[in-house]
Design goal:
Elements (H helix, E strand, L loop, with lengths): L2 H32 L4 H36 L12 H34 L1 H30 L6
The protein binds protoporphyrin IX containing FE.
Length: 157
């Protein structure tokens, strides 16, 4: 197995962990949390699961980026970022940058602020979290569909 194939395999494995976990939180955990008898109980359930998942994606998200950038460098795909036919390359990079910013910069910086706000109004915090996770999951699904189709020869334009 050459380095590009290894990078591709690790890339997809890390994407499965990260986006699969996002789907689990958006489609299973948050609806269950919202169905709890009190919003603060629901928020506690969500926060406990999200904390564990957040610790794990601190490994899988950087791995997606490192392997993706390695493939881009080795295959000399840089000009794809300027070509609209390869929109899915920019979508991958944009989604990754957003999550990196969230988990390594904004969340640690604003953790106390988010927690205080959520405690003061747990019902709307859960609602906002559900909307955010559903939107991110939709973007991730479109990106993954575009990436698999595009990487296997489908021409979007
Ligand atoms: C820094 C961010 C990223 C970079 C630079 C990057 C780069 C790449 C490259 C160069 C390829 C190979 C394309 C080809 O063979 O034509 C690829 C494939 C792929 N990427 Fe990414 N990627 C990144 C993030 C993501 C994210 C966030 C997702 C998930 C939503 C993702 C999902 C995929 C998938 C599913 C494939 C197709 C694998 C295959 O079927 O061969 N990537 N990526």
């Amino acid at each position: 197995m050459d380095d590009i194939t290894l990078a591709r395999a690790l890339h997809v494995l890390a994407v499965i962990h990260w986006i699969g976990g996002l789907a689990f939180v958006a489609l299973i955990v948050l609806p269950l949390a919202q169905a709890r008898s009190t919003a603060s109980e629901g928020l506690e359930l969500f926060a406990t699961i999200e904390r564990r998942f957040a610790a794990q994606v601190r490994v899988s998200i950087p791995l997606v980026g490192a392997t993706g950038l390695w493939m881009t460098y080795r295959l000399d795909f840089w000009d794809r970022f300027l070509d609209p036919a390869y929109w899915w390359m920019s979508a991958m990079l944009g989604l990754w940058l957003f999550f990196m910013l969230m988990i390594f910069v904004l969340e640690p910086l604003l953790h106390g602020h988010f927690e205080r706000k959520a405690r003061s109004d747990p019902a709307s915090a859960l609602r906002r979290m559900s909307q955010l996770h559903a939107s991110l999951l939709s973007l991730a699904a479109i990106t993954a569909l575009g990436a698999v189709a595009g990487a296997h020869g489908f021409n979007f334009f």
